[in-house]
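FORM 12-B: Structure-to-Sequence Request
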């Protein structure tokens, strides 16, 4: 194929697919790209997905197009490697997800009524996915929950699966009791291996509390991290006004500046429209 498509600014998906094919060409491609495999590219795929989420969270709409392009490139990269191995093509990938969307939305593309609540549609979706898992011989309740998911996300998915078959506390009261129990066990253990295990148990129950309260633990922790970053940057700014850095300060001073940043946050929320 000529370079016309490569340099066509309106070449769309065919252009991107051809660029990736050329990058992976064993004779004329990029040495770095040629050396990559599924495992080496997977971390970049995860990173790009997070950068998309970050742009959305920051409402950085001017950046979103580029971040979505970076994420799309990951799908193209994996598909090119699969095609080289004779496994499947990009059209196969597109057709597979199209078939899945049509099958999972019979109320849009089939004969089922759209006159149902969003909650009922979620239940129907889960029934369809359960049937798909059965077709793959994934018969266990927890089968098919990807191990590569972020830990908090995987925990809530596992708990949701178990809850659908009745393995769940009926109210948040029991979850709160379990948190107290797990925190006490964490305080009592002596060796590092047990401490690691009990800390994981406590985190797992905290995820369950979020689920019972209708909160996304992954989003909540990201928000808490963003808040921590914002307030610590306020500490740094206040110290800079005093010609100091955190290394020149001490905990008492920084803690006082933290409280000031916290009070400012609360005042801004109170005055927000």
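FORM 12-B RESPONSE
SEQUENCE OUT:
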């Amino acid at each position: 194929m000529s370079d016309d498509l490569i340099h066509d600014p309106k070449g769309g998906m065919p252009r991107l697919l051809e660029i990736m094919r050329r990058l992976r060409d064993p004779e004329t491609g990029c040495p770095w790209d040629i050396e990559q495999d599924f495992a080496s590219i997977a971390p970049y795929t995860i990173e790009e997905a997070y950068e998309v989420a970050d742009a959305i969270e920051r409402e950085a709409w001017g950046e979103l197009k580029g971040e979505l392009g970076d994420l799309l490139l990951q799908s193209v990269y994996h598909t090119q490697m699969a095609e080289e191995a004779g496994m499947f093509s990009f059209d196969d990938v597109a057709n597979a997800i199209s078939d899945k969307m049509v099958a999972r939305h019979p109320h849009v593309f089939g004969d089922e009524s759209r006159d149902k609540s969003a909650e009922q549609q979620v239940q129907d979706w889960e029934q369809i996915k359960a049937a798909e898992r059965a077709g793959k011989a994934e018969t266990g309740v927890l089968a098919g929950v990807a191990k590569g998911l972020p830990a908090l996300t995987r925990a809530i998915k596992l708990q949701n699966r178990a809850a659908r078959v009745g393995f769940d506390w009926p109210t948040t009261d029991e979850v709160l009791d379990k948190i107290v129990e797990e925190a006490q066990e964490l305080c009592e253990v002596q060796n590092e291996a047990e401490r690691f295990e009990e800390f994981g148990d406590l985190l797992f129950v905290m995820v369950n509390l979020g689920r019972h309260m209708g909160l996304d633990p992954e989003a909540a922790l990201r928000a808490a991290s963003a808040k921590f970053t914002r307030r610590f940057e306020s500490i740094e700014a206040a110290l800079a006004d005093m010609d100091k850095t955190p290394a020149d300060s001490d905990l008492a001073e920084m803690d006082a500046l933290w409280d000031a940043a916290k009070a400012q946050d609360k005042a801004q929320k109170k005055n927000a429209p």
